Amino acid sequence: SCPLFYRPLNVRVALTGLEIWSDRDKIRVEKSPTDTLSNFLEWRTRDLLPRLRHDNAQLVMGGSFDGTTVGMASQSSMCSRDRSGGVNVDHLVSVLGVASTVAHELGHNLGMSHDTAERHCSCQNEPRLGGCIMEPSTGSVPDCLTRVSIRPEPPTPLRLIAGVLLLSLLCALTALHL
Predict the structure, then answer these.
(1) Which residues does the annotation place in the binding site for Zn(2+)?
(2) pTM over 0.85
């Protein structure tokens, strides 16, 4: 489902690996999403990257965080070896619900902020119809085909580049702008 969320941006999301922790958690899962994200990103850098070539890792976990948070990711970190990832709570019985949370956190990794009136970027899809991917959590499942925030804040290269682009080229262009 997740690749469909990004179809309007002509971005292809490919699953390059899947690891299931069936014997024990490989990180300390905290009630704080910030602490859990930090623990997961440390594990990714130390353990996963040496074993599997990938650009981003997303943890999908059971349980819950304090408050209403169901996911967290590092902003504009897709090109970062140490910060490209997110943590997501499997909070719904629907696979599409989890996929929309992962797509939302990937959006943050790609540099997208929440769609808010303050940013003059509001969701045109009513919450009862699912809302939009980059909208702050609505409790409903966003429309997976047409409603994706495509207004990343500068200096995100997505604003500058149209069409198909390899992530390695995107990261090289990002490095030139830093």
Answers:
(1) 104, 108, 114
(2) no
